[in-house]
Amino acid sequence: MSVVEELTVPTPTAGGDRRELTSPFTGRPVRTIPQCTVADVESAFARARSGQKPWARQPISERRALVCRLLDRLRQKRAALFDILQIEGGKARIDACSDYGEAILSGSWYVRHAERLMRSDSHPGMLPGLTRTTEVCHPVGVVVVIAPWNAPIGIGAGDSIPALLAGNAVILKPDNQTALSTLYLRQIALEVGIPDDVFQVVLGDPAEVGDALIDGADHVAFTGSTATGRKIAARAAERLIGSSLELGGKNPMVVLPDADLRRAASAIPRASFANAGQVCLTTERLYVHTSIFGRFVELACRKTRAMRVGASMDFRFDMGSLTTGTGLRRTSEYVEQAKVAGAQVHTGGRARPDLGPLFYEPTILSGVTAAADLHSAEIFGPVVSVYEFETENDVVDLVNSTEYGLSASVWTRDIKQGARLAARIDTGAVNINDAYTAAFASHAAPSGGMKASGLGRRHGAAGLLRYTESQVVAVQRLASPDSRLGLPRAVHGRLISAALGALTCLPR
């Protein structure tokens, strides 16, 4: 029996529908999963609120120990998890490894640093020696994590673990297509002792349960499209709760004339075609200096044509399948429309039904104009458009000419020049001589987008503290600064004014 067949799925509730999942590799059925109703969501919140308070009262060292056990068990079960991620998502195994790796590496960083981040912090008081001021971090309560289908474990676990460590209960909502890996994650979490009510998974159609999830949450962590992110942010704002959103990207890669062309071209298979281009950080726009344009395109196409594309449950292939029929249709339509508008296909540019129902070749285009939708729209498929530029000012205008601002890369042998250019690019991360992994996998540093690419940050201190509320506790010794001590008002006013002048000169 396969790991997918052995996996425990929730018992359907009265009134809930069922959804049959199919494999992107084959199009054949995999498992049937239940769909939650609004009543199920409300029940999940009631259980979460009941379980969260005793969970928060536990010493953080105890919560940390349980998360450590979860990570250890995930390491032990990684082969089974890789299988599930491939079966439900159509990933190449190397991309399943990357999804898993994000969960392990980000979770491990929080395990090491959560106690420090949650520790009470002293601040200078109003009256030196007389006022003691302490900042205390409290969990917000119940956190809803809405994970995308392209990285159900990397984002699902990566966003849930810091929330759990901070003392929150978590309700994790995966996409239906990739629900099995999320259910497997929860199954392991319960096996290692994380309370059932504290870490729950809710399945269902967003149109059915989406509003109920936002309306019951104390914080929403969402990764997905910009259009959906805007709706979540607006609904969360109505309730004055926090939301952290990583949204779409139209990420540029800039190749300067002094760049190591072989190194930059060798990066394209991962920069643009990791997970069949279904990564919010992958490069969709490639800007190459006119003096090296022809040579670079030739090298990039050679590296792309050498990619091994196919379906297997091992590390044989570099790129797998698209995950959904919608994704295949969108990719095909964008490329065909661009061709009609005058774009040239240098390599790829067609579906590969001989490999499986949702395969599409890694594709490099040039001559893509604003008449084509893929010029400005996020493709989320294995397609990159290449453009020429002449001056640094030109390329800065080009890379910033989009509503998105998630990630970018600059390729040059002159690191100082690369850093100067990076400072002019409006994205949450800029990588120099790396596509996106260098910044994203630096888990001590915050990760997120500017402009329409999101709000807030994951990773680093910000990735945990977003799930907390700060409370200031101030202790005043002796007289209150508001007390007149029996002095006439005029005398008291002059003394206060003089004291304020003195206080502004003191280090704080």
> Structural class, from helix and strand content?
alpha/beta
Strand order of the largest sheet: 12-13-14-11-10-16-17
Q: Percent of residues in helical segments?
A: 40-55%
Estimate what percentage of residues fall within beta strands.
Answer: 15-25%
What would you note in describing this structure?
There is one protein chain. The chain is an alpha/beta fold. It is 41% helix and 19% strand. A hairpin with a 6-residue loop joins β1 (18-22) and β2. α4 packs antiparallel against α7 (179-191) and α6 packs parallel to α7 (179-191). The chain starts with a helix and ends in a 5-residue tail after the last helix.
Annotation keywords:
508 residues; 18 helices; 19% strand; globular; alpha/beta; 7-stranded mixed beta sheet
What is shown here, in short?
This protein has 508 residues and is an alpha/beta fold. The chain has 18 helices and 20 strands.
List the helices and strands and how they pair.
Blueprint: H1 3-6, E1 18-22, E2 29-34, H2 38-57, H3 60-76, H4 78-89, H5 93-118, E3 121-123, E4 131-139, E5 142-146, H6 152-165, E6 169-173, H7 179-191, E7 199-201, H8 206-216, E8 219-223, H9 226-238, E9 242-246, E10 251-255, H10 261-266, H11 268-271, E11 283-289, H12 293-305, H13 325-340, E12 344-347, E13 363-366, E14 383-389, H14 392-399, E15 404-405, E16 407-411, H15 415-422, E17 429-432, H16 437-440, E18 450-451, E19 454-455, H17 460-465, E20 468-476, H18 489-503
Parallel strand pairs: 5-6, 5-8, 6-7, 8-9, 10-11, 10-16, 11-14, 13-14, 16-17
Antiparallel strand pairs: 1-2, 3-4, 4-20, 9-19, 12-13, 15-18
